[in-house]
Amino acid sequence: MSGHGHSHGSGGCGGNHNCDDHLTEEQLADAYSLYTKINMEAVQCLNTESSPKAVFKPWDQRLDKERFVESDADPELLFKIPFTGNVKLKGIIVIGEQGENHPNKMRLFKNVPEMTFDEVGRKADQEFELTPDPQGTLQYGVIPARFNSVSTLTIHFPSSFGGDLTKIYYIGLKGDFEEARRQEVVITTYEARPMPEDHKTDDFEHFHHPIS
Questions:
Q1: Which residue of 35, 44, 48, 106 shows the fewest CB atoms closer than 10 Å?
Q2: For residue 200, what pLDDT is reported?
Q3: Strand 77-96 vs strand 105-110: parallel, antiparallel, or unpaired?
Q4: What global pTM score does this model have?
Q5: Burial state string for 126-140 with b = 16 or more CB within 10 A and e = fewer than 16
Q6: Dihedral angle, C-alpha 11, 14, 16, 18, nearest 10 °
Q7: Residue 121 gets which letter from DSSP?
Q8: Angle 62-66-69 (CA atoms, 0-180°, nearest 5)?
């Protein structure tokens, strides 16, 4: 595996700095509501028998220990998170199990929906050294310019703090959401049998009906 650089976002909001400590619980719940824009039926996580949807939940349920994702053969996990539109990602919170099974690194990849463990050696769009955070008080701020127009976010957790497994209870995502634009389809209708008295020429008439 390639080396892991320390990346601390930009604008003073990154690494282990919590930039939302001035927000109310209601504002935090609103900020970390991007889970509602995830295509949950298509979420995947490699190297686990847990449901990958378990870690994406409302802010007020972030400390729920009943639902989690736990790695299988070793500490490595690879989440593939498709959104229902385009996201401008701004921040991530990761709550893991207290102790050595908490992930210690996080690597982000933008718009690589079919990624597998064979490809995790490629350069990530951003990497983080994680701090144990069983209460969800630390936000990792991403570099905004690298995470505009994200349709799929892949998160690689390569290792834990020395444990045989990695256990994650919550992944909170903050950012702006834009509905996917439906490509305009133009349907052309042909008049099958033009009547001579209705037409000055024999050309078919074309009627264009855009469907947005």
A1: 44
A2: 45
A3: unpaired
A4: 0.77
A5: bbbebebbeebebbb
A6: 60
A7: T
A8: 80
